[in-house]
Amino acid sequence: MQIGIVGLPQSGKSTLFQTITKTHHQAVIKIPDERLDKLTDIFQPPKKTSATIEVIDVVGLQKGASGSTQFTSNFLGKVKTNDALIQVVRLFENETVPHPDGSVNMMRDINNFEAEFIISDLTIVEKRIETVKKQIQKVQDDKLKREFPLLEKCYNLLQEETPLRDAHLTNDELKILSSFQLLSIKPMLIALNLDETQVNATGKFLDELAKKKLSKNTKALFFFGKIEQEMSELSDKESVIFMEEFGIKESALNNIIRETYDLLGLHSFFTCGETECRAWTTRKGANAQEAAGEIHSDFYNKFIRAEVVAYDDFIKAGSFAKTKEQGTWRLEGKEYVVKDGDIMIIRHG
To answer: What CATH number has the domain spanning 285-348?
Structure first.
């Protein structure tokens, strides 16, 4: 999965990226998970492998002749390759670092991005509708007949300035649209960048967003860019003290990763043993055979059974042997729906 971080110049976009990745432009980051740490302490294997996610600092926004931000085709092209987006929105005031559009305005900045994405999608959908119309006249194709009403539905929503992520599309409809790389269909996490003077104002901003913008596929959180940047240069112990001083309960990294995972409909399961403890990513609703395929294609093709125990049950028992005695260890078939935190051993041919 690839997550793109977008934002206007001077929003703190690159600061956020560098804080959570310790690098520039593109990085594969480990997903922090206290459960994996605990399992590693219990099994003591020589290797611990975290689940990962790719994060990209999407560049390409420019200032137009009027001084306002210009959304270039280069920028929009880069956004198309992302599975989800984190939009950094500036809420802090700083006269020495002026806002590119002249003032700090949360809803204006969010809506400007949305408008550009919708315009881009309208162009793509409109062209595809014309193409499908011509093709249907020449050949009788059931696939095109299913696609056409979906395209019309999307076109009407976009004309009403409704992003496609809020269109309540089915999995089959999403599959049909996936090849078009539409922008407004991508899940969006809005990351509000505040400074230390706004620690007590977070609820106000989130409430305003909840009334106007948030939905199942558009979520929001806040972070303190300047504070997070300073924390990234401290030891873990010093960071904890620093966070307590400012009343910050969780680092931006942990919060953003958790919310992004939820936004994408993902969660983790574990494999544990003497050689390695590892976290794997799968989509919510995936069955045991599909989860086995995340480990290796052979595990999917030759799947027989999965030995499963819930993380909490394992921690209470302390060992696989004890979970079997307590009856929390069980055998599951390929249709078993994997739960977040399941510890699994895959039996395969």
So the answer is: 3.10.20.30
